[in-house]
Design a protein that fits this description.
alpha+beta, 2 domains, two-stranded antiparallel sheet, two-stranded parallel sheet, globular
Length: about 150
Protein backbone atom coordinates (compact mmCIF):
# COMPACT_ATOMS: atom_id res chain seq x y z
CA UNK A 1 0.00 0.00 0.00
CA UNK A 2 2.82 2.46 0.80
CA UNK A 3 5.07 1.27 -2.02
CA UNK A 4 2.77 -0.46 -4.46
CA UNK A 5 -0.34 0.93 -5.99
CA UNK A 6 -2.71 -1.22 -3.94
CA UNK A 7 -5.89 0.52 -2.81
CA UNK A 8 -6.36 0.60 0.95
CA UNK A 9 -9.91 -0.65 0.46
CA UNK A 10 -8.45 -3.86 -0.94
CA UNK A 11 -6.45 -4.58 2.21
CA UNK A 12 -8.95 -3.52 4.92
CA UNK A 13 -10.09 -6.53 6.92
CA UNK A 14 -13.14 -6.80 9.18
CA UNK A 15 -12.63 -8.13 12.70
CA UNK A 16 -14.88 -10.01 15.09
CA UNK A 17 -15.48 -6.70 16.88
CA UNK A 18 -18.40 -4.78 15.41
CA UNK A 19 -17.39 -1.55 13.62
CA UNK A 20 -13.66 -2.34 13.94
CA UNK A 21 -11.61 -2.92 10.81
CA UNK A 22 -7.86 -3.33 10.50
CA UNK A 23 -5.22 -2.98 7.83
CA UNK A 24 -2.70 -5.64 8.82
CA UNK A 25 1.00 -5.22 8.18
CA UNK A 26 2.84 -7.67 5.98
CA UNK A 27 6.49 -8.64 5.76
CA UNK A 28 6.83 -6.02 3.02
CA UNK A 29 6.52 -3.32 5.69
CA UNK A 30 9.93 -4.32 7.05
CA UNK A 31 11.59 -3.17 3.82
CA UNK A 32 9.33 -0.18 3.25
CA UNK A 33 11.51 2.16 5.28
CA UNK A 34 14.47 1.58 2.99
CA UNK A 35 12.45 1.75 -0.22
CA UNK A 36 10.65 4.94 0.80
CA UNK A 37 13.94 6.86 1.02
CA UNK A 38 14.04 7.42 -2.74
CA UNK A 39 10.26 7.55 -3.35
CA UNK A 40 8.50 10.71 -4.53
CA UNK A 41 6.10 12.19 -1.97
CA UNK A 42 7.45 9.66 0.53
CA UNK A 43 6.09 11.51 3.59
CA UNK A 44 2.54 11.58 2.17
CA UNK A 45 2.07 7.96 1.09
CA UNK A 46 -0.06 6.89 4.07
CA UNK A 47 -2.09 10.12 4.04
CA UNK A 48 -2.90 9.67 0.35
CA UNK A 49 -3.91 6.04 0.89
CA UNK A 50 -6.17 6.86 3.87
CA UNK A 51 -8.05 9.61 2.03
CA UNK A 52 -9.95 6.93 0.10
CA UNK A 53 -11.53 5.43 3.24
CA UNK A 54 -11.66 8.22 5.85
CA UNK A 55 -15.36 8.86 5.20
CA UNK A 56 -16.20 5.33 6.36
CA UNK A 57 -14.73 5.75 9.85
CA UNK A 58 -15.19 7.99 12.87
CA UNK A 59 -11.60 7.42 13.98
CA UNK A 60 -8.48 5.85 12.52
CA UNK A 61 -5.73 4.66 14.87
CA UNK A 62 -2.23 4.30 13.47
CA UNK A 63 0.19 2.20 15.50
CA UNK A 64 3.78 3.23 14.88
CA UNK A 65 7.10 1.52 15.42
CA UNK A 66 9.23 2.82 18.30
CA UNK A 67 11.45 4.76 15.94
CA UNK A 68 11.45 8.14 14.25
CA UNK A 69 11.93 6.86 10.69
CA UNK A 70 9.88 7.32 7.53
CA UNK A 71 7.06 5.03 8.66
CA UNK A 72 6.48 7.18 11.73
CA UNK A 73 6.80 10.37 9.68
CA UNK A 74 4.17 8.99 7.29
CA UNK A 75 1.86 8.32 10.22
CA UNK A 76 2.39 11.80 11.68
CA UNK A 77 1.76 13.39 8.29
CA UNK A 78 -1.53 11.46 7.97
CA UNK A 79 -2.69 12.05 11.57
CA UNK A 80 -4.55 14.95 13.14
CA UNK A 81 -3.77 14.00 16.75
CA UNK A 82 -0.98 12.11 18.51
CA UNK A 83 -1.23 10.08 21.71
CA UNK A 84 2.24 9.18 22.97
CA UNK A 85 2.73 6.06 25.11
CA UNK A 86 5.43 6.81 27.68
CA UNK A 87 7.44 4.82 30.17
CA UNK A 88 8.85 6.97 32.96
CA UNK A 89 12.43 5.91 32.34
CA UNK A 90 15.40 8.02 31.31
CA UNK A 91 15.78 6.77 27.72
CA UNK A 92 12.02 6.77 27.14
CA UNK A 93 11.84 10.40 28.26
CA UNK A 94 14.76 11.29 25.99
CA UNK A 95 12.83 9.67 23.14
CA UNK A 96 9.74 11.64 24.13
CA UNK A 97 11.70 14.86 23.80
CA UNK A 98 12.90 13.85 20.33
CA UNK A 99 9.39 12.82 19.28
CA UNK A 100 7.92 16.14 20.40
CA UNK A 101 10.60 17.92 18.36
CA UNK A 102 9.73 15.79 15.30
CA UNK A 103 6.01 16.51 15.79
CA UNK A 104 6.76 20.26 15.81
CA UNK A 105 8.77 19.97 12.59
CA UNK A 106 6.04 17.88 10.91
CA UNK A 107 3.47 20.46 11.99
CA UNK A 108 5.57 23.28 10.49
CA UNK A 109 6.44 21.58 7.22
CA UNK A 110 4.01 18.78 6.37
CA UNK A 111 0.89 18.77 8.53
CA UNK A 112 -0.24 22.05 10.14
CA UNK A 113 -3.30 20.29 11.68
CA UNK A 114 -1.21 17.91 13.81
CA UNK A 115 -1.57 18.31 17.58
CA UNK A 116 -0.34 16.28 20.54
CA UNK A 117 -3.49 15.02 22.26
CA UNK A 118 -1.51 13.78 25.25
CA UNK A 119 0.48 10.93 26.64
CA UNK A 120 -0.57 7.54 27.95
CA UNK A 121 1.50 6.19 30.83
CA UNK A 122 2.70 2.85 29.54
CA UNK A 123 3.65 1.20 32.85
CA UNK A 124 2.63 3.17 35.92
CA UNK A 125 4.40 0.76 38.30
CA UNK A 126 7.75 2.12 37.17
CA UNK A 127 6.80 5.80 37.35
CA UNK A 128 9.43 7.70 39.28
CA UNK A 129 8.71 11.11 40.71
CA UNK A 130 11.36 12.87 38.60
CA UNK A 131 10.36 11.02 35.44
CA UNK A 132 6.69 11.75 36.04
CA UNK A 133 7.41 15.48 36.44
CA UNK A 134 9.50 15.49 33.26
CA UNK A 135 6.82 13.69 31.25
CA UNK A 136 4.14 16.07 32.55
CA UNK A 137 6.13 19.06 31.31
CA UNK A 138 6.55 17.51 27.87
CA UNK A 139 2.96 16.55 27.00
CA UNK A 140 -0.43 16.73 28.72
CA UNK A 141 -1.73 13.51 30.25
CA UNK A 142 -4.20 11.67 28.06
CA UNK A 143 -7.68 11.82 29.57
CA UNK A 144 -8.55 8.31 28.41
CA UNK A 145 -7.76 5.01 30.11
CA UNK A 146 -4.23 4.27 31.23
CA UNK A 147 -2.33 1.80 29.13
CA UNK A 148 -0.48 -0.98 30.92
CA UNK A 149 1.56 -3.98 29.89
CA UNK A 150 -0.33 -7.26 30.15
CA UNK A 151 2.14 -8.44 32.81
CA UNK A 152 1.49 -5.38 35.02
CA UNK A 153 -2.24 -5.96 35.52
Amino acid sequence: MLLERVAIGDVVRATEVENLDIVPATLNLAGAEVELVSALQRENRLKSALEAVLGRYDDVLIDCPPSLGLLTINALTAATEVIIPVQAEYYALEGLSQLISIVRRIKEGLNPDLVIRGRADHDVRRTHEAGDRSARRSAPAFSGPRVRNADSA
